[in-house]
Specification:
Elements (H helix, E strand, L loop, with lengths): L3 E6 L5 H10 L5 E8 L5 H8 L3 E4 L2 H6 L2 H8 L4 E4 L8 H6 L4 E5 L13 H10 L4 E8 L9 E8 L6 H26 L1
Parallel strand pairs: 1-2, 1-4, 2-3, 4-5
Antiparallel strand pairs: 5-6, 6-7
Helix pairs in contact: 1-7, 6-7
Length: 191
């Protein structure tokens, strides 16, 4: 067992989780040990199988009303939690159990276009509607509020006049896949 074990929380297709699992597949001291999803049909579960990473399904009520998720994380020796398109607010008990050990990626330049309900295409549509000249990604530590923790990295991309929410989403996703695994490695190595 490697000294640093990641749990990735994801609700969707899992493209960021896949990039992270690929990046750490042969890493010397960091491994992805667990995928946790709150969506039964999330694509991330299939991606976990491809990398022989155990996945677990949680329901919203149990996530907030019990400490079962914390017990699961501890039983798997999880040292850090990575949010990769996870749509639920992390409960206070997990933040206290993993202080500065939970990281998130958001598809805008926070504090713009962040907060409850601002995820995925909702963000990109809002950015295009606001006629912004640039967007990008923000990687930050997680606290008790949506998209509010200490910022570790922001990467910008220009928005062209012919960009749509869909083309912007593709640009930002490419940046996410390029930068998130590297930032996770630096963050784990310094925590």
């Amino acid at each position: 067992m490697k000294p640093f074990r990641l749990a990735i929380f994801a609700s969707g297709s899992g493209s960021n989780a896949e990039a992270i699992m690929k990046f750490f597949e042969h890493h010397a001291i960091i491994e992805v040990a667990l995928i946790i999803s709150n969506k039964e049909n999330a694509g991330v579960i299939e991606k976990a199988k491809q990398f022989d990473v155990k996945s677990l399904l949680i329901n919203k009520e149990a996530f907030y009303q019990s400490r079962a998720v914390l017990q699961i994380l501890q039983s798997h020796g999880i040292s850090h939690i990575v949010l990769a398109g996870f749509l639920l607010l992390v409960p206070d008990y997990l933040i206290k159990a993993y202080p500065d050990k939970i990281i998130n990626i958001h598809p805008s330049l926070l504090p713009k276009f962040g907060g409850k309900g601002m995820y995925g295409m909702h963000v990109h549509r809002a950015v295009i509607t606001a006629k912004e000249n640039e967007s990008g990604l923000t990687i930050h530590l997680v606290n008790e509020h949506f998209d509010d923790g200490e910022i570790l990295l922001q990467v910008k991309c220009a928005i062209e006049t012919n960009d749509s929410a869909e083309t912007l989403a593709k640009k930002v996703l490419q940046l996410e896949h390029k930068h998130y695994p590297r930032v996770i490695a630096d963050w784990v190595g310094h925590s």
